[in-house]
């Protein structure tokens, strides 16, 4: 682990895909930190004071200064601890591509997944929308990620977009197994399947991602089956 002169605390909620991103970025960079799990039904003073605008996790507190919003947190981590392998590419156009597809994950992938989970009509239409969004992401992966170098958007090493997507490696199977989501097939999205497989095997992701059975119990309790 790096830099013992830094005081780094992360406010988290274990099933939160947003918390998982921030945790993964810290682990990937080897940053010593304290993980402070939060009770979402009884928000702590530290959460309310450090994220008074949204009152949500994750919040990174670095030497007493709070940073909220997972995308902003991962960006901050990458700037403060560039280390041997920066998450964002050096090239400005590629950086813009990573930001564009991050925005797509928030606005399209996450949104269609949550609408599926909340749907009370079986969710077939929104499930199809979700698959179409995965196909678009597959196209981006084929364009941006060098398959010969490795399975990630960053080729052989995780990059910004890989961290953004990593929580879905467990979230999608969780929603599939509890709620009957039909994910894009291996034939439709071979690169995404490889990426999620590689995420599941990544040493930092193994620590950051919750076990699938625990996540399934949470999804079942919170959303029920379809
Ligand atoms: N856009 C935020 C979303 C964070 C978020 O929605 N966090 C949820 C947990 S998954 C939360 O703290 N919810 C508490 C609440 O809504 O009161 C991010 O990227 O960090």
Number of helices: 10
Distance between the termini: 43 Å
* CATH fold assignment of the largest domain: Glutathione S-transferase Yfyf (Class Pi), Chain A, domain 2
Name the structural class: alpha+beta
Poorly predicted runs? none
The ordered string of helix (H) and strand (E) elements is: EHEHEEHHHHHHHH
Tell me roughly what share of residues is in helical segments: 55-70%
CATH-defined architecture of the largest domain: Up-down Bundle
Strand order of the largest sheet: 2-1-3-4
Bound molecules: glutathione
Average pLDDT level: 95
**Total separate domains:** 2
Strand content: 5-15%
Kindly provide the name of the CATH class of the largest domain: Mainly Alpha
Instruction: State the shape.
Output: globular
Largest sheet: 4 strands, mixed
Radius of gyration: 17 Å
Q: Could you list some keywords that capture this structure?
A:
single chain; 226 residues; alpha+beta; Glutaredoxin; 2 domains; 4-stranded mixed beta sheet; 56% helix; binds glutathione; glutathione transferase activity; Glutathione_S-Trfase_N
């Amino acid at each position: 682990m790096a830099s013992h002169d830094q005081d780094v605390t992360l406010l988290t909620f274990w099933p939160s895909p947003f918390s998982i991103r921030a945790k993964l970025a810290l682990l990937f960079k080897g940053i010593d930190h304290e993980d402070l799990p939060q009770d979402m039904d009884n928000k702590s003073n530290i959460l309310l004071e450090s994220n008074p605008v949204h009152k949500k996790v994750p919040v990174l507190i670095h030497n007493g200064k709070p940073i909220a919003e997972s995308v902003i947190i991962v960006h901050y981590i990458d700037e403060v601890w560039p280390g041997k392998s920066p998450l964002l590419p050096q090239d400005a156009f590629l950086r813009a591509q990573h930001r564009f597809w991050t925005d797509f994950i928030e606005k399209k992938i996450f949104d269609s997944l949550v609408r599926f989970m909340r749907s009370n009509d079986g969710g077939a239409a929104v499930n199809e929308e979700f698959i179409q969004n995965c196909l678009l992401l597959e196209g981006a992966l084929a364009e941006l990620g060098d398959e010969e170098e490795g399975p990630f958007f960053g080729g052989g090493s995780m990059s910004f977009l890989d961290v953004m997507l990593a929580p879905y490696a467990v979230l999608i199977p969780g929603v599939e197994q509890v709620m009957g989501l039909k994910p894009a097939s291996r034939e439709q999205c071979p690169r995404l399947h490889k990426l999620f497989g590689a995420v599941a095997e990544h040493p930092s992701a193994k620590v950051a991602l919750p076990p699938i059975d625990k996540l399934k119990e949470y999804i079942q309790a919170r959303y029920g089956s379809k």
